[in-house]
Amino acid sequence: GSMYDNQGLHAEAAEVYRQAQSAYQKAEDQEGEALALLNLGRVYRNWGRGDQALAYYEQAIEIFQRLDQPENEASSLMSLGLLYNDLDRLTEAIETYEQAFILFETVEDLEAAAGVLHNLGNAYARAERFEEAETTFQRALEMYDTIADADGIGAIYSSLGHLYDDQGAYD
Predict the structure, then answer these.
(1) Burial class of 30 by CB neighbour count within 10 A (0 to 12, 13 to 18, 19+)
(2) Is 37 in contact with 20 (CB distance < 8 Å)?
């Protein structure tokens, strides 16, 4: 499925993931089914079909909640936040990223938590909530520094630069 999706063959990717979902459903493997739904959501997001992506993400989140799998739930929420961001539904993106952050923090996945904060900061910046964006980027920077993630640190500095540029803050 991901091979097709990466090549822009979204219909083929969706069909493979639907087959996977069906097989997992027949095997009564709820986690596998939820992962297939999450992948279907990603395919439809990449395909530009937000409404369908939203439905798949929501189904995956519901299953992960029922299975008490906070890390998978958080990953699904992160994907949902990205979709909301794509759709310019910034309030929902922000709320969703905040939920994902809490879950990633709970399972002590600092790299994923920092990534969510980065996305959250970008959503705040797009919503012109510049102080919140800066504070959130600083929190992400601290987390990336704690885990010595040079790429994450670089990405945050880049986002801070864009934020300051957007505000005309050149000093």
Answers:
(1) middle
(2) no
Alpha carbons 167 and 170: distance in angstroms, whole number: 9
| Helical ranges in the chain per DSSP H | 2-6, 10-26, 30-46, 50-66, 70-86, 90-106, 110-126, 130-146, 150-166
Tokens 């395909």 belong to: 47
- Calpha distance 118→97 (Å, rounded): 10
Query: What DSSP state is assigned to residue 109?
Result: -
**Look-up: residue for tokens 């395919």?**
43
* pTM of the predicted model as reported, rounded to 2 decimal places: 0.92
Tokens 């909640």 correspond to what residue?
A: 65
Note whether 94 and 61 are within 8 A (CB).
Answer: no
Residue with tokens 């890390």: 71
Nearest to 66 by CA among 117, 31, 115, 107: 31
CA distances from 24 to 11, 31, 43 (A): 20, 8, 18
Q: What is the pLDDT of residues 66-75, one digit of tens each?
A: 999 999 999 9
